[in-house]
Amino acid sequence: MLDATRSPLHPSARDTLLAALDAGWADPRRLHREGRRARHLLDRARESLAESLDARPDEITFHPSGAHALRTAAAGLRHARRRVGARVITSAVDQAVLLHEAHEADPDFAPLPVNHLGRLLPQTLETALADGPPSAAVALQHANGEVGTIQPLEHHFSVCRAAGLPLLVDGSASLGRMATPETYDVLVGDAATVAGPPLGVLVVRTGTRFDLPGPRWEPEHGREPADPWVPLALAAAEAWQQAVPRRAAESASARALIDQIRNAAAGVKDVDVVGDPTDRLPHVVTFSALYVDGESIVDALDRLGIVVASGSACTSSRLEPSHVLAAMGALTHGNVRVTLPLESVSPDRASDVDALCRELPGVVADLRDRLGVSDL
Prior knowledge:
- By secondary structure, the chain is of the alpha/beta class.
- Helices cover about 40% and strands about 10% of the residues.
- The chain has 12 helices and 11 strands.
- The strands form 3 sheets. Strands 1-6-5-4-3-2 form a 6-stranded mixed sheet, with helices on both faces. Strands 7-8-11 form a 3-stranded antiparallel sheet. A two-stranded antiparallel sheet has the order 9-10.
- The longest helix is centred in the last third of the chain and has 23 residues, at about 350-370.
- The protein starts with 10 loop residues before the first helix and ends in a 5-residue tail after the last helix.
């Protein structure tokens, strides 16, 4: 399996989840014994996660998904700073949910352009802050989950500090796979990135102005209408706890496998490997093949037992090109995305990578032959 935006649970996270079904099923707001036990387990999960992310337990909240946490983060900063400005500044390669929030705040706002590697340059952000109308916050990804390119957060953070704006960092694709960034005011992650359940995590640094519109809820510092399901929170915390001590070795192993894929894809005629080749996530790569569509490549590889994804955003009614690749000026068709699972949940991933590298040239050639474009 080479498509791990969702992967099987880490064995320890799975064991934790199953055990918590009996120990932590109750409502943590109840005063009876089962409720108090659930509250204790939820507090333990928060403390464990805080240790993994180098944060304080009272800065962390749980959310139904990474996308939900990201939207909550943007909304909380925007509402809290509504008297300062309306805009949420973001880049053209950030997640669609963040682009939607930015557009909702200011329908006339255009996301900031990136270079051909998918990187937002600090001077681009600095110019936008200096020349544009007042803004509420800046929201940027730590690394792109489609092409892997890492953003220069330290520079962006210094630009935001000079402008008096908070920086929201989307770590959905990176937290647990790389060292946790230190330069942020608000941070978002997803336990699915480290083979945990798809549970979103939001970190709001102490002292950051943050306030959501609407009613004031009690759970999760007022950021959710209900407490998280305790077994999921415990499994998420366990997945991160397992990932952190193995991160260096896991990163080195994954990086070598991705380099193998990058080299194999680049060796196929008219195939473009996108993203920064070195300053990138260790486990992600996207490449695009001219003349063929990504869905056909994915389907052909699937018939060979090789599971990958396409960077296109698919719906039941239409196919849309990847907005990330479009923003980079790269091919928006014929793209294939590989997201390596952790070795702990996919011990055969090296052989899967070997199979992909071996079969890819033939798959692309066969599809081009069927279209009659092999000689172009």
